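Run log, item B.
One chain of 388 residues. Sequence copied directly from the ordering sheet:
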Amino acid sequence: MSDPAGRSGQPGPPSEPGRSDGGRRRRFTVDALFADHRPQATGVADLPTAKEILLDRIVPDPDQPRRTFDPDRLDELADSIRIEGILQPIVVRYDAPGDTYVVVHGERRWRAARLAGLDRLPAIVREVPAERRLIQQLMENIVRDDLNAVDRAAALRALKAQLGDAPWEDVAGAVGIRRSRLFQLLGTEKLPEPIQDDIRGGRLSEKQSRALQGLAPEAQEALRSIIVADGLPAAEAMRLGRELRAIGVAGDRDAAVAAIHRLREPGSSQVTGREGPLPQPLTGDHRAVGPPKRVYDQADGEGMTVSLLRAISVGVTDGPAGRDALRRAADRVDAPAFDLDRLVDSVDALALSLARLSRGPVRSDDPARAVLAALRDALDSLLSDPPT
């Protein structure tokens, strides 16, 4: 009797190509036949959206938030591209009406590639909805800290309009930044155009520019010139700005320059480290210029800041009605958005002033008592445990 295949221990006849051991024919797809089976291809997939596109078919986005491109940095990037090529593809979207590819991310690389003489560019083609383009471009530049503050402010305002005039809190949330940071950026829009140009050109940082906000135009220009010429650190610039606002220099650039030079002399701080009343304005009527209202004005009774501190105490503990009253009080005095750096600077200044109170506890008839008591109550309210 013949032995069935495999029972005698002898190997059976070889299976036909394309047939499995069970006798069923294996099926191959075209993709499997042409797939890359080398070790380096394991876990790797091709991107169907990865292209190499002629530069002539790529155009910049007219709504791109970046408005300023440093020529020197573009030349440096072009030199790098000539040597190493494009290390990171740009991102584009296809515009059917114009039959072009519009840059979504990477306009600097596109510009530098043109300077370098390239005729084509690696790119990822991505369809980005119109309502998401500005958000993505803003997020990329904000995360990389690669967009100047003035252009960021303009883009944030455009985004607010694009979101249907959404509240600023929603705009900040859309791009992932704090509300206080958003208002710092928007503050650059209040500065004169020449100072905005300094920020765009990198001659003035956004943090240095905060020192100029709220100053009279002459004092603004005087301090701006000294910051740019001497490269003043932001902290020193902000100190000088605070003291110029307290002095109330008005209407005379030369007087502002002289005041700044005096304030920069060692031990000459006229606001945070000097006993006695603040100096009077150097020129003009300081009320006409509108410097910040003082913490306590003996001629004015209670003073703005005591009222504001009391509003803080009530606003923290008195629910929505108290918060609305506090918001209105802050709006009346044009209070800036909360900023931790400003808080630390103000506490430093307060500590320096209080260090001069060497005469013991403040008496009940001391003019400083009302201010300090209001401050104590406001701090107690802010630091109290929230209700459970």
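Observations after the first pass:
- The first strand starts at residue 50 and ends at 54.
- Strands lie at 50-54, 58-59, 90-95, 100-105, 120-125.
Flagged for discussion on Thursday.
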